[in-house]
Amino acid sequence: MNSIPFADLDELLHAIQDRIDDGDLAAVVEAVAPATAEQMTALFERLPLTQRAVVYRLLPKERAIDLFERLSPGIQSDLIRGLQDSEVAAIFIDLDPDDRVWLLDELPAAIAPRLLQGLSEKERQLTAGVLGYPKDSVGRRMTPEYVSIRAASRVAEALRRVQDRLDEAETVYTLPVLDGGRVVVGVVSLRDLLRADPDAIVTDVMRPAQVVTAYRDAEEAARVCTGMRLLAVPVVDKEARLVGMLTIDDAVKILELEETEDAARQGGVEPLRRPYFATPVRSLVASRIVWLLVLAVGATLTVQVLSVFEATLEQVTVLALFVPLLIGTGGNTGNQAATTVTRALALGDVRPRDLGRVLARELGVGIALGSLLGLLGGGITAVVYDPRIGSVIGLTLLAVCSMAATIGGIMPMIARVLRVDPAVFSNPFITTFVDASGLVIYFLIAKAILQI
């Protein structure tokens, strides 16, 4: 961070906090003046809420608006609560309609009407149009500020239309081409339009359009945009008429938030929706405690299984030594399968109708893994302890790995069929289930082989 007269971000952070505590606001302005936009974003993610509002008020208007747009929706929401109504209104007016909706989704519902009233009639209508779509739909994340061109227009006429609306549009690099009924018939890039013959017809230079409906899941639409490496994707209504554009920056933002949520839930916590250092300790506790309680209740299944087979353990105490190995291996196998399939679902590599194929594939993977681990674990156990104990361990590893991979693979698929986030069936839940069922398999195999 050579542009800041401090060794690193932590030093700048402490310097700003000390100067705010001392009431030396001029020194705060001097300290943050050389910081880049990226550095200011990182700084705001670490400042406490009240100090964040103080620093924000000291920034020039243009710099403050640019910084606000870079912050995560959670941080934006926190910052809004620390500013006065007049400051909030000024920020809200300068945002694009889709960015306003991002912010409104994070704020209490009672605040939204007051903020919308401060907008001009045109801006209020644009924002209300985006707000009218379901919360998780791409219609909620599209921009209604775009430039469209007519299929029958000449290239020169289309370019004049783009120039006339440059200040109104959020993006002009991908231009939707419409027929007389506002139905999307193609798209044309600004580059192709600029190098085309001015007298050519737009239909001669356009290409087929990849569109998404406004009610489609936002994550799916974002993957279409990023997967096909498009700068923007036209968003249409049920009659294929253009209603907005999903830009690449919003698509990336959607995927970042979705993948953060998936990673959190797979780890057994609720997503924070704001950076770690900007999250109060009470919020960290709240994001974890419910899941821990649920998983603790689930873990009683394992205790119940052990109590049922207590007599078996008393007769062959050596079996207890292998309990951590077996349940750990089963849990890890299930987690690997669940993570792989959840990711494949997110990318569109597999779909709910592929449930049977995924089940067969993961069963085969589980058998292969179980065979390898079973031969290794059973062989070592047979040499160290007893051949019969080695047989128990080997067969249990085979059975547990096969079961765990199958369960881990199909649980995310079942979640998708039930219209539940696959990440909700997180790794801790699968581990808890596999622990209990794996112990049942272990003791049943032991009783059969050891005749106890």
Report what the structure shows:
Belongs to the SLC41A transporter family. This protein has 452 residues and is mainly α. The protein has 3 domains: 125 residues, MgtE N-terminal fold, CATH 1.25.60; 113 residues, CBS-domain; 171 residues, SLC41 divalent cation transporters, integral membrane domain (Tetracycline Repressor, domain 2). It is 64% helix and 6% strand. The chain has 21 helices and 6 strands. A hairpin with a 5-residue loop joins strand 2 and strand 3. The N and C termini lie far apart (69 Å). The N terminus is likely disordered.
Chain-wise SSE layout:
Layout: H1 9-21, H2 25-32, H3 37-44, H4 49-58, H5 61-70, H6 73-81, H7 85-94, H8 97-106, H9 111-117, H10 121-131, E1 149-150, H11 155-164, E2 174-178, E3 184-189, H12 190-195, H13 202-205, E4 212-213, H14 218-227, E5 232-236, E6 242-247, H15 248-266, H16 281-308, H17 310-315, H18 323-347, H19 355-384, H20 387-417, H21 427-450
Parallel strand pairs: 1-2, 4-5
Antiparallel strand pairs: 2-3, 5-6
Helix pairs in contact: 1-2, 3-5, 6-8, 8-10, 14-15, 16-21, 18-20, 18-21, 19-20, 20-21
Family: Belongs to the SLC41A transporter family.
Subcellular location: Cell membrane
Keywords: CBS domain, Cell membrane, Magnesium, Membrane, Metal-binding, Transmembrane, Transmembrane helix, Transport
